Fold this protein.
Amino acid sequence: MDTNQISDSLQLRLEMDLKKLLAVNDQVRAVLLATTDGFEVAYCGDLGSSTPSNISAMTSSMLSLAIAMVNETGLSSCLNLMVEGGQGRAIIMSVPSKNKPMLLTVLTREQVSLGQLLLDAKITVKQLSDKLENC
Amino acid sequence: MAGNEHKLIVSGCIGAGKTTAISQLSKIRVVSTEAQNNDIQNSSKAQTTVAMDYGELSLDNGDRLRLYGTPGQKRFDYMWKVMAPGSLGVILLLDNQRKQVLEELQEYLAVFQSFIQEQRMVIGVVRSNEYHYPSVGDYYAYLRSVQLQAPVFSIDARRRSDIVLLINALLSQIEMKIKLQARSVS
């Protein structure tokens, strides 16, 4: 990835937003920010046995497939994708930005409240999006 | 359903023309999953496939080919493994402009090993007119050195006739193998 595209200071500020989400919701296990083509930008928390680079690439594939399906079925636009596992959920959300669109992945524990999670994650998306838009 | 359905995989290096090849052949609007390419050092393309391309092609005998294009980059290699099962064969596109093309070939051969061992793979090399090394002969020599064989063609992925050539070569090879197997059984 062309690392010149994201300055160190921007990366730090993005990381802060991820850490805030991790701190504000105790059912959030890990938070990861990736480019739309699957490169890791920042992450915090516990990704289990996986690596940030693997999750980043998979996130990119999964959301792009969801977008393709939404386009095929005329559902207008795909804003997020949720995977429900036996021991928690994974939510993948688009982080809109004119120049640097990205993807936010939130991994949760089993007892997460979906409504609270979506609210917290959307606030983080907005914060990230503002920073990426104004960088 | 009029005929049989077959699944074909189009895989290979980033920028080798997999999406273009499927677009050239497909009789339906191609389903693509492209994202902004941030890896400018690796490829100057503006967009890159991150999950798959999908297109369909009808054959003269009424059979239908379902064409699945993979992402090219190694970080998406799980998609290669996800898409391979149940496929009739693999069209592998390599880009001679890439300096590590033989190393990349090695990676694809490892993932699609069963296809090449069962003679269900063809290789198309793009940009060999501008970048002469490795030559088609070099590719054959490399395949021989690892005890594998597959037809190798110099092609232009933007030319429909070249992609049709690859598909015909692949289908002929598979058909011949089936006939030989049937003969040995009877």
Q: What stands out?
A: The mean pLDDT of chain B is 92. The first strand of chain B starts at residue 5 and ends at 12.
